[in-house]
Amino acid sequence: MTKIIPYESEHALRKLGQRLVHARQRSHWRQSDVADRTGLSRGTIQKMENGEPGVAMGNYMILLALYGAASDLDGVCTEVSAHDALESEQACLRVRNTHELDNDF
Q1: What is the rounded CA–CA span in Å between residue 88 and residue 80?
Q2: Sequence-separated (6 or more) residues with CB below 8 Å from residue 67
Q3: Global confidence as pTM
Q4: Which of 32, 43, 61, 67 could form a disulfide with 23 if both were Cys (CB 3.0 to 4.6 A apart)?
Q5: What rounded mean pLDDT belongs to the chain?
């Protein structure tokens, strides 16, 4: 079964993949160098840099730690961001208008 992820999530993964490519290039490493340093396969690194959603989160964390960016996730799902997301979700909910019933026959 293929999982369908929201467009926003897919877009965010592609952007993260691009950032991973830039981080690797700033370090003057090839994908094979990163594979040697992390123990991940070169194919997995390619998938991550392409933003493919099937890669395990733990693998992303390995690369983020290698590039010194693991602490960048500290702001993810904080109380403030969770509250904002809930408000946004509630704003999109359909609300049925209720009318008082007239019991006068």
Answers
A1: 12
A2: 20, 23, 24, 27
A3: 0.71
A4: 67
A5: 85
